[in-house]
Amino acid sequence: MARFMDVHRGMQGITADQLMEAHKADLAIENEEGVHFEHAWADPESGLVYCLSEAPSPEAVQRIHERTGHRADEIHPMPLSV
Amino acid sequence: MARFMDVHRGMQGITADQLMEAHKADLAIENEEGVHFEHAWADPESGLVYCLSEAPSPEAVQRIHERTGHRADEIHPMPLSV
Questions:
Q1: Which residues does chain A have within 8 Å of residue B46's beta carbon, measured at their own beta carbons?
Q2: In the CATH scheme, what is the code of domain A2-77?
Q3: Of the partner residues B3, B16, B79, the one whose CB lies closest to the CB of residue A80
Q4: Residue B28 and residue A50: Cα distance in Å, rounded?
Q5: What is chain A's alpha carbon radius of gyration, rounded to the nearest angstrom?
């Protein structure tokens, strides 16, 4: 398992409810790929969304995000953290 | 207080010790600007570092990062989180 930060762009206008619904949709199927989405942060003005996850691979993260309708624009491994 | 995600680029080769030292340097003076750095994540291969903070403004975040020698390339407010 590794940690990943993924980035979604173009989400201008996202609401707290929409972020929660998207996160819940990911959580509902994440175990099918061995992924766990830990947190997500969003800025409705810039349209940026960041998601922090633990997963076996970036492809596993992307498969969950694609199935729930919000493909990530970037997925970065984050092997170091404090 | 608001939450911010800041991004540092070009940190290729950063080690766990260097990330910890940079984070400790920020923590040592953060209260002078009313900032709290909650977490940081780094990828030595891509050179990306993300820092999550609570702060009164993006300028306050940048002032701490500048004084500790690692100016952020981007600082994004993150008003929504799950």
A1: 76-77
A2: 3.30.70.3090
A3: B16
A4: 27
A5: 12
Any idea where the domains of chain B sit in the sequence?
2-77
- Which pLDDT score is estimated for A48? 98
- What is the tens place of the pLDDT at every residue in A66-80? 999 999 999 999 999
Asked if the Cβ–Cβ distance from B43 to A79 is below 8 Å, we say yes
Coil, strand, or helix at residue A53? strand
List CB contacts (< 8 A) between B70 and chain A: none
A15 CB neighbour count, 10 Å cutoff: 11
**Can you tell me the distance from the alpha carbon of B54 to that of A34, in angstroms, rounded to the nearest whole number?**
31
pLDDT grade for A22, boundaries at 50, 70 and 90:
very high
Other C-beta atoms closer than 10 Å to the C-beta of B64 total 26
Cβ <8 Å between A79 and B42 = yes
Mean pLDDT of all residues in B15-36: 98
pLDDT in the model for residue B42: 98
